[in-house]
Amino acid sequence: MAELTYRDAVIRGIAQEMQRDEDVVFLGEDVAKAGGVFKATVGLYEKFGPLRVRDTPISEQAILGAAMGAAMTGLKPIAEIMFSDFFAVCFDYIANEFPKSRYMTNGQTKCPLVVRTGNGAGSRFGAQHSQSVENWCMMIPGLKVVAPSSPVDVIGLLAASVRDPDPVIFLEHKSLYATKGEVPDGEILDKLGTAKILRPGKDATILALALMVPRALAAAEKLAAEHGIDCEVIDVRSLVPLDTQTILSSVAKTHRAFSVEENPRLCGWGAEIMSIIADEAFYDLDGPLVRITTPHCPLPSADILEDAILPSVDRIADRVRKTLQA
Amino acid sequence: MSKKPVTSTALNDDIGEDKRLELYRLQVVIREAEQRAYDLFLQNLVKGTSHLSLGQEAVAAGFAGAMKKGDLSFCTYRGHAHTLARGVPIEKVLGELMGRDNGLMRGKGGSMHLTSEEHGVMGSYAIIGAHLPIACGAAWRAQYKKQDDVSVCFFGDGTTNIGAFHEALNFAAVWKLPVVFVCENNLYMEYTPIGDVTAVPSPAGDRASAYGLEKIVIDGNDADAVYRAAQTAYDKARSGKGPSLIECLTYRYSGHSRADPAKYRPEGELERWKQRDPIKIYKERLKQFGISDDQIAKIDAEVKQEVDEATEKCKASPTPPLEILTTDVYADGGFAWRN
Lengths: 326, 339
Ligand SMILES: Cc1ncc(C[n+]2csc(CCOP(=O)(O)OP(=O)(O)O)c2C)c(N)n1
Ligand SMILES: [Mg+2]
Fold this sequence. Notes:
- The complex is a heterodimer.
- Chain A is built from eleven helices and 14 strands.
- Chain A starts with a strand and ends with a helix.
- Chain B contains ten helices and eight strands.
- Classes of the chains: A alpha/beta, B alpha/beta.
- Chains A and B meet through α3 and α4 of A and β2, α5 and α6 of B.
- The complex binds thiamine diphosphate (TPP) and magnesium ion (MG).
- Thiamine diphosphate (TPP) binds next to β3 and β5 of chain B.
């Protein structure tokens, strides 16, 4: 057991998989000699050498296209897109190429690759370097979409993503890189499509992802301490595949559901989950399904503005309390 | 060296009789199958869209003819020719165009996405430029695993103006990848003359120097010229010397796609190019080298019969069963995204 940062967990996860399988290769901008702009790939170049850890030009289409061609023909590439906002300049691969090739070719083409990216707000980078794009990815049939919130989940889910035969979008939260957590020694392998109950509770279910997970947990503690409200907090972790069973069982117990989403409101991931709950657990509910999200608005840069636009601990706690007490 | 006794010493040059007959046959297969695809469209048996390579047969035949088994082709929506040139059965191609169960992908891909990995056809891509980076990735795998196959990527003149072209060329040059980029310059991007929208006269050739590559512009209607250029580029790729970019001058006889009557072409242009028809040129070449009219006619007749038989099989084939509607979205064979 050791305490590790989320950032170092990324390094350990990639190293674990590269050590295990020579077909795992890694490419991206500034990832090799420089160790990544978030320092989340430091030491991999030294450890695995220039043939397996490769710096690329500023060519996001070439990065993802090359990853796909390599994956189709026998490698298991991990590609880094520095900021998830840049998905917009290579979205063809994410929306049209990776996810549709297997279907269109009647199962001939395989695409076992992972796209790692720095996602989310909190760094005061403004509207084009701070977005949460999980909902851009979740809506595309053929992709898998994962967003870990803790160091141990980073390693286990990254390993599961690399070993998965489908294309996986792996969203690392930029504001979590410096956070720490306990990580066991030895190989860590988790399972995609599994949510985790991080705090059991009986009064309401709060669903959260990535940076919103620690905030939802803090809000739950506040609600318990100040108002005697006992919330169950679920880290959704994997949007596709989605662990609806864990979510529905929780709602059957608490009769209330809230989502805490960093993505802007329209078509956010919580909307899909809430529609599933409405559809399949309507008669379990004692009140409205409530989504706590970033508004339908680009992200501002100034710290005071950025802090105000994202769901905060206070906003989450407030909204849950008011809804339950209404 | 030809294994059989040669009928003409002139035929015993770098290409040889066997290869020339193969190149001729490939071109006739493409011509006849494409013509049939068009006829079937007129009969409403081919639905959706289709982009024919009538007039551009020599490019597909020359590049495929010079490949080894295991080399990989990456095509565009105008990919029937390259797919057939790798030996994919005509029936499977026509069946896919007709949306039948005997089609290459059982109707799940259609005309623009022909793929047959067992023949080295690694996909036909309908988003302009998308497959150039993908071909780089396949070439990267060959380089990394020390395998000696070449990735060959076909695209049009219009494709040289999209970002992915430039990203891929730079990437391939910097990484010295065993990839060959083949631009089929048929003078038009869809309905617009390429010169109206391109800063340089040779859309691919004049871009080569920006990536440290040699400018190569060849006669794309002469299968021998294509074959020789392909061999040189493949040798370069296999010996670790990196990518090539080859521009082939050619012309498409039909419109851009099935919906296009091609009224934008200046009068006489089509007729001028038909005088340089690739099959006509190659027939004359064969005759110069002593191949008889009878031998040529026999190939023509065999191919026509093959296309007829393939057409009948497709017409007799059932349509795909609805059970395949949601198969192969994910690697587990299904489309489940939740438990
Ligand atoms: C990204 C993208 N933009 C536009 C189109 C529509 N489109 C299909 S084919 C084509 C023309 C391509 O011309 P060229 O590269 O010369 O190939 P050709 O069709 O002549 O073989 C266009 C604009 C597309 N499929 N993808
Ligand atoms: Mg063209």
